[in-house]
Amino acid sequence: MLAGAALLTTAACGSGSAETPAGQSDKPEVVAAFYPLQWLTEQVGGSDVQVTVLTAPGVEPHDLELGIQQVTGIRNAALTVYIKGVQPAVDEAVEAETSFDAATAVTTIPMGEHAGEEEEHGHEEVSYDPHLWLDPARLATVATKLGERLAAADPEHAQGFKDRAATAASTLGTLDQEFAKGLSTCKSKALVTAHEAFSYLADRYRLKQVGITLDPDTEPSPTRISEVAKVAKAEGVTTIFTETLVSPKVAEVLASEVGAKTAVLDPLESKPSGDYLSAMRDNLKTLQTALGCTA
Ligand SMILES: [Zn+2]
């Protein structure tokens, strides 16, 4: 083991500058907490930064625990991009001067309440709903602020950061227009979900989210399920939304009680098969079908 480690060290020193271990570049390292922030940071940072992500693909981000290496990564990074309230471990590890909390860039929505029913997973620290990346318009604002923040951290490349931030903001603006148009004429406005992650999307496009639970890991009570069933029936809901990474069981129980189908919406808490834009467009199609939209 020791001999191997020594060899690796020698090889690393031989291949480049002594200060730059093998596999690392001299670009500023930016840590993104989970997928949508990774996507955005890559758009805005471009080839001027090296982006790493804390939450592995396929992992539900809220309960993330950080290893020593990841904490060290955060300490050494030029910037850590996160949203306070999503991951308590990350909230604890970041330092104010070297972090960017995307929630400070936008108007947040207060946390939904279910009459004090269950503990909210990983959201105890903040009073707002942290799922703000599901509104493309708010994410566009985050892109602009992130560009400014990266420019301040690395003034030599400021223009590149600002240009790419402007491009990302405009791409997200286009997506926002597609949603606004696509959801403008629908039979139903009720968005019944298992995990209440879509408040920002509902807010932006005037849908009414009826969530069963804020916590995808907790079984909702039968009382809560029948409450939601009552609302769903009254609203003439035909589809109950489930999501990737969360067991569809709760939504299926509810759907059978209401006589509705289920369909999958992606809350983008983890890397989709495409990227942020394609997954959001898939969400739009799913919503248009489920809500009977004609645009
Ligand atoms: Zn969530």
From TrEMBL:
Keywords (A to Z) from UniProt: Signal, Transport
Gene3D superfamilies: Nitrogenase molybdenum iron protein domain
Pfam families: ZnuA
Matches recorded under SUPFAM superfamilies: Helical backbone' metal receptor
Xref: InterPro entries: Bact_metal-bind_prot9, Lipoprotein_PsaA-like, ZnuA-like
Similarity comment: Belongs to the bacterial solute-binding protein 9 family.
Protein's UniProt name: Zinc ABC transporter substrate-binding protein
